[in-house]
Design a protein that fits this description.
The complex is a heterodimer of chains A (114) and B (112). By secondary structure, chain A is mainly beta. Chain A has strands at residues 4-7, 10-13, 19-25, 31-37, 43-51, 54-57, 64-66, 76-78, 87-94, 104-105, 109-113. In chain A, the strands form two sheets. In chain A, strands 2, 4, 5, 6, 9, 10 and 11 form a seven-stranded mixed β-sheet that branches. Chain A has a four-stranded antiparallel β-sheet with strand order 1-3-8-7, with no helix packed on it. Chain A is globular, with a radius of gyration of 13 Å. With 112 residues, chain B is mainly β. Chain B is built from no helices and eleven strands. In chain B, the strands form two sheets. In chain B, strands 2, 4, 5, 9, 10 and 11 form a six-stranded mixed β-sheet that branches. A five-stranded antiparallel β-sheet of chain B has the order 1-3-8-7-6, with no helix packed on it. Chain B is globular, with a radius of gyration of 14 Å. Classes of the chains: A mainly beta (114), B mainly beta (112). Chain A binds chain B through residues 31, 33, 35, 40-45, 48, 50, 56, 58-59, 90, 96, 99-103, 105-108, and chain B through 4, 6, 9, 31-32, 34, 41-45, 48, 88, 90, 92, 96-105.
């Protein structure tokens, strides 16, 4: 099993550009989520999904879109990047039924918006 | 608003010292409290605490939860340089759906 994979590892965008951060898992997990991590802020939940076709907002959803068309994939879209979105982004997944505490995190994407 | 606060934010000690990291929380629909260790990349799971007063141990690490006073501590005894990391506390809540609310993290540095 590859676990949770994220691409790209690093990305630099100009303000106003759009991009999609990819996240995939091969563990058949129902629950998937996106977090951003900024210095001194811990991890903050952006969006999450409890299964294919179902998504919901977390703490800091503004400026981000998600969709979940398959169990395996949960892409995060930035429609018009802003410098405030410079951060490290983590995707995570778990079995819903056992509680999301057993979350498996991807390696992260470091995004810089200039 | 759900809130998880960790202290101290940063701690530097010498190898062999014992450290205590703190986590307090104010949330609705508390289910459990979790500790993670984050080195260079993704957080890795350490402990989950659900009941008050029951210590969880793993080697030199231990943790306990106080649901009356709404806090948890993570102890590391006989620290080693490999314990240097950011330690994250998170609270698992259910508000419609399940969520983890994270604290800011404590950056622990162990000097040889």
């Amino acid at each position: 099993n590859a676990g949770v994979t994220q691409t790209p590892k690093f990305q630099v965008l100009k303000t106003g550009q759009s991009m999609t951060l990819q996240c995939a898992q091969d563990m058949n997990h129902e629950y998937m989520s996106w977090y951003r991590q900024d210095p001194g802020m811990g991890l903050r939940l952006i969006h999450y999904s409890v299964g294919a076709g179902i998504t919901d907002q977390g703490e800091v959803p503004n400026g981000y879109n998600v969709s979940r068309s398959t169990t395996e994939d949960f892409p995060l879209r930035l429609l018009s990047a802003a410098p405030s979105q410079t951060s490290v982004y983590f995707c995570a997944s778990s079995y819903s039924g056992r509680g999301i505490y057993e979350q498996y995190f991807g390696p992260g994407t470091r995004l810089t918006v200039t | 608003e759900d809130k998880v606060v960790q202290s101290p934010l940063s701690l530097v000690v010498h190898e062999g010292d014992t450290v205590t990291l703190n986590c307090s929380y104010e949330v609705t629909n508390f289910r459990s409290l979790l500790w993670y260790k984050q080195e260079k990349k993704a957080p890795t799971f350490l402990f989950m605490l659900t009941s008050s007063g029951i210590e969880k141990k793993s080697g030199r690490l231990s943790s306990i939860l106080d649901k009356k006073e709404l806090f948890s501590i993570l102890n590391i005894t006989a620290t080693q340089t490999g314990d240097s990391a950011v330690y994250l506390c998170a609270v698992y809540i259910i508000q419609g759906a399940q969520k983890l609310v994270f604290g800011q993290g404590t950056r622990l540095t162990i000097n040889p």
